[in-house]
Structures
1.
Amino acid sequence: MDIKRTSIKDLLQSNDFDKSVLIKGWVRTKRGNKNIAFIAVNDGSTIHNIQAVIDVPAFEEDLLKKITTGASLEISGTLVQSSGQGQSIEIQADNIVLYGEADPDTYPLQKKGHSMEFLREIAHLRFRTNTFGAVFRIRHALSFAIHKYFNDKGFFNIHSPIITSSDAEGAGEMFRVTTLDPAKPPLNDKKEVDFSQDFFARPTNLTVSGQLEAELGALALGGVYTFGPTFRAENSNTPRHLAEFWMIEPEVAFNDINDNMDLAEEFLKYLIKYALDNCKDDIEFLNNMVDKELINRLKSVAEVDFVRLSYTDAIKVLEKADQKFEFPVSWGVDLQSEHERYLVEKHYKKPVILSDYPKEIKAFYMKQNDDGKTVRAMDVLFPRIGEIIGGSQREEVMEKLLTRIREMNLPEEELWWFLDTRRYGTVVHSGFGLGFERLMLFVTGMTNIRDVIPFPRTPRNAEF
RNA sequence: UCCUCAGUAGCUCAGUUGGUUAGAGCGCCGGACUGUUAAUCCGUAGGUCGAAGGUUCGAGUCCUUCCUGGGGAGCCA
């Protein structure tokens, strides 16, 4: 008589008492004495464990001895109402099959809590902890919600290339992609590396943004988005930066900067609400163990109207601030972290969308305002994590775009395909980039971005 | 990359103005306990004090360089 495996998530929601059930999973803890033992088993389907009750004399001593924290097994038995405190349902075990032992002398995970720094060193095993189980279930749910949101709105997902020959985005240092031998690369007459002999017959890099390609898609399909890995070879050592991260970049034809802000705000609120509605157990756990204010903060951001403020007005607010800044504020300077934090966390106490920045501190492709000084850029600033979204209305007028490209000494010839969209059937359009891991930081309450991606890539670290 | 703090047992940490044999809690292992909840109680084992140099009669402790990690800054998402 074979019983089919039930997920622990399903089992904990059932009240089919006295029914024969079978679970498979990993041991979290075992407690007990010579007569009775309790095994808490987790199978990853939920943060909650199910408790199996063992009538010790009915099992082989050698088998029970090998059931230690981390071991994998299957347990079959009868689903019963618990006679102990702390859980309402448990399994009265009839049979146990041990799959894999976990030597307690060397298995690094203990029953007690570990520091995030230690768990990061054993990233291959940290999935098995409550915290990282919760984090990565939420990561999946948010990833799914992103596709659902855009699909429901009629957007199309564009798979922008990961290898690019364009280095004109200006979004940061790039990782070179090459098949040339670094020890003896072919040289040309000028003793420079001869990339014509490389795989793509030109220098290529990992993408720093899918935006330019997304624009091409938007100017035919209307609303599109990319959601893929992004690579920045910056030597950034902070709790908010990764060398490899995931970015969502919607791009919409006929949207101006205000439509863009509406989209960004609606999108973020949708994702936060989705997590609150669909990851309740995991978020409650994180609220209890990681960040006591998490749920309150998520609820308030999901409901509040974001502040919308021009850069120029933000400067006025900062100049009047009753606080000394390390970096003085004046019109034209780029805002520092301390300025953004003041606006979001002290002055307004809610998310702020800043727009219309001086053109000198923003990218070439941004729509120029009639004042000749500012561009229609927008940054969404969140409490705790700062810039979560950066975007803009794009310059759709060929002459203005070309002028800007030449002023900034960008390689006009390499951008011929991008410029063609302005040459043929150009339209107003806008888009933005959302850093997925920064969203994850906000939704999970975790404080280091290396703990919301399974295997973080940072300077001098590509383990696993 | 810059500033700053740290690195001592499997984990989290203490270790005095430099002084003999480096400690604790938790975990592991052994024992006790008939319903446990990070179980409890008793006991044992467990150390290249991040690495390499240097100062000193003597260095976990002071100096130099490097490595690793945390926090802050810059770059950005």
2.
Amino acid sequence: MKLSRLLVPTLKEDPADAEVISHKLMLRAGMIRKLTAGIYSYLPLGYRSLRKVEQIVREEMDAAGAQEVFLPVVQPSELWKESGRWDVYGKELLRFKDRHDRECCLGPTHEEVITDLVRREVRSYRDLPINLYQIQTKFRDEIRPRFGLMRGREFIMKDAYSFDATEEGAEESYRQMRVAYEKTFQRCGLEFRAVEADSGPIGGSFSHEFMVLADTGEDTIVSCDCCDYAANLEKAEIRNEPPSFPPSSSTPEKAHTPNVKTVDEVANFLKVSPATIIKTLILRSERGPVVVLLRGDHELNEVKVKNFLNLAEMEMADANLILEVTGGPLGFSGPIGIHNVPVIADHAILTIESAVVGANKADTHLVNVDPRNHFRVDNFGDFRAATEGDLCPRCPGTLRLSKGIEVGHIFKLGVKYSKAMNASFLDPEGKETLMIMGCYGIGVSRVLAAAIEQNHDDDGIIFPPPLAPFTVIITTLGAKSDAINDAAQKVYENLWSANIDTLWDDRNERPGVKFKDADLLGIPFRVTIGQKALAQGNVELRNRQSKETILVRPEDLVSTIVAQIDSWTAGQ
RNA sequence: CGGGGUGUAGCGCAGCCUGGUUAGCGCGCGUGCCUUGGGAGCACGAGGCCGCCGGUUCGAAUCCGGCCACCCCGACCA
């Protein structure tokens, strides 16, 4: 491919509406262009890289025994009503009507379609297990798309669905996918971690997310500093410390706290640590108000509360509801004197010997409160977000926080969909049995963005060789020199015949322009052909990542490049 | 959906507050000369419904109202 004929509109300046580095670089490198919010066109370079990711995913899925299919984008509402998700999926599901006024949606995921397909075609345990996957454009009408390909509304995803006859089989299918995912992301050259995750509205019994480690990630990962425990912040468990002191015999006393509302204000005003304050949160749910007690220096983890109480919806109460529940104004809520409303508390409040709480009365707090004596708690549990330094739930270690980009998510679904949609088979005894399902997603377009997020420098992208749109770029200096062009032509043909994707920058540009573009595009190897080296019968080979340049005889180029790729692979 | 911001040439921006010639600058683009190892230089040139609709005014990129789009923060989210 000659660069002079390829649509690669590079930009010198950062586009104004790009925030994160991968978005900026993909725009600057001419890989993608935005059509509208959260929807992008892939230009030749971007599409080549995307196809490389797809191909790696495809090979690993095939190797794991999954079979590729291709499912419809437009789906009828009937299936979604059958699974029960038509009413719960929310506005993220783009709905519309066709000319016959039939309700349809654009597929944000394909559990319904695949379950429908399999229940029609598979009837015997002899046909199981089966694992079907596709690489497809998904549409989710995100409230706020951002960060380019990282969170688009339209995006490319690989989704696989396994169907098993037995529980053990389902766990084996899950395990195989987990291994396939490890291999896939490793081949992509990503630094990642598999973490325990909440399974969310997709449902199911357990799940893992695959997180690419990057500071710009939208998810927070909690990991142990001495064992391999790692979890999404939403899910991360915390080992709690039992109180190390006996219950006190003190009695609560009132403290006048005029207009002092937040934990920080109370701590400053009363000259106490936030860790001795009990935060009283009033929440509104579909089953009425709930009171959650947390230590002042901790944050609520809504997912934990939702899972504990089996709630679908939860939000902070407004001032009216707070008045109704506590009898006092917002900012002065406390657990003492709350009746008829469930009260749940995080374990950590038991580590407070003498606590400060709101008095449920304007401008008043209570001090000397003993969490074990002075108020009712219906349940203690783990309701807070993990923080740096918390104790690991699995070992004596402590927990660390880091940021990650979710590129894959695997779920053990169980019979959630097979039950709702009656996907069953006959077992060896001739008994009708529900299939046990799993589903496994990879954000293919997001992998590309994550790879760039993790591999770049001030000059541009540094593609891991397996994802690079081209492996080599030939930069000729002096477009009018026959000697240089002849040498380039030979090198170009040799590389292609060795199956190395090669781009030839044959433009009549000044060297600086060509070098800058080559760096920006992030092509792993640059072969520079110019007068100087050529006079000695050499070309230059520059490694984009190491920035090392060596002189190579043209006939040795292929073997040298292959060796450098091999050493890159070995380093993974 | 709530809060904030921005829409002026392909891209990045100035001009707007304080209305008044032909709306500017840098990059990019075209032609020519020149140059060729890290985004050169000179000359000439093309390219604008100043987001859209309405209003105020002798006169609107500029003031007012409405709408639309995009971006940021939040809620939300396999």
3.
Amino acid sequence: MRNSFVKLIVSNAKLSGMTCPAELDRFEVADKLHSAAIHLLRHAAKPDAQSGQGPARLSALSVLVFGGPKTLGELAAAERVKAPTMSRIAAGLKRAGLARIQKDGKDARRIQISATAKGERVLQEARQRRIRALAEALAVLGPGELTALQGAAEIIERVVRERVIRAN
Amino acid sequence: MRNSFVKLIVSNAKLSGMTCPAELDRFEVADKLHSAAIHLLRHAAKPDAQSGQGPARLSALSVLVFGGPKTLGELAAAERVKAPTMSRIAAGLKRAGLARIQKDGKDARRIQISATAKGERVLQEARQRRIRALAEALAVLGPGELTALQGAAEIIERVVRERVIRAN
DNA sequence: TCGGATATGTTAGCCATGCTAACGATTAGC
DNA sequence: GCTAATCGTTAGCATGGCTAACATATCCGA
């Protein structure tokens, strides 16, 4: 999936249709952000391989660890994935001993998926490795730059959340 | 792959070992950035599906369009992917008429991969859709927030680039 | 110059992750 | 109670990562 979209102001201008300066800026910022996000995630993803689990499983496991037990449908929705995909991910987590699957007492169609102690440990270790790798990279920054990044992260979350809500 | 690592200050403190406030901040910022990057890319990736090409192909194609013709090895290195993987991606691009593959005159082992006119068009359209989706999301922001995001993107690029160089 | 080492791609085959279609079982609702 | 909706699974397809093993081609040292 690895990427490297070169940032060309020229092509941004072409894309935006040269409408106005504000428009141009948005496109430029969007392009830079996209590239930065790709590079940041590529950097952060490296340590995850050590866990022996794929990204989909780690991600689903994190939902279970931080969000508590979920039915398959809930987990699929949380991960924005279709039910068959999550069915397979859950089976993989169970096979690896990271999650348990129990019947729902009230609705026999449903299943309850929850993280095991081993699952919690594996997730925390993977998370620790990933965040530590990023945090080490951030160690070269001063407090002002850290604050800028934190603010940017919050802006991004807000913007994306608004879009998602509008889309639904 | 979809993710949603919940940000818990408590667990950050646990991860950092409670060494000092600056350490804690780095972990917190790292976690927020990671989450924001995932959500941003998830948002930006949606329009790409319209192109009918997978992300790996689009990404490799962008390298060809913006970086010019490449040998398979060069393209694999640019995408941080092994040769067999890029071999298959290149075959897919050729099959879709987005790239051409020519023999290298000087070294018969090598091949030259380059984007076709159709490839350029398809990439620009996909890129346009993707960046436009992001730019629309950014439309709710004021100039100060845009500037903050741009600065953050530059900081991220700098930090990650330094790490990559150091790792090599 | 020749022959082994190195470099470059390809093929085969594994696994993980996404999807849709089709199905089985269960529950809800009229 | 019968029909329709819901929930999960299975089967099958495509993409995209990997390693191992291979075929060529080039390089380099004896």
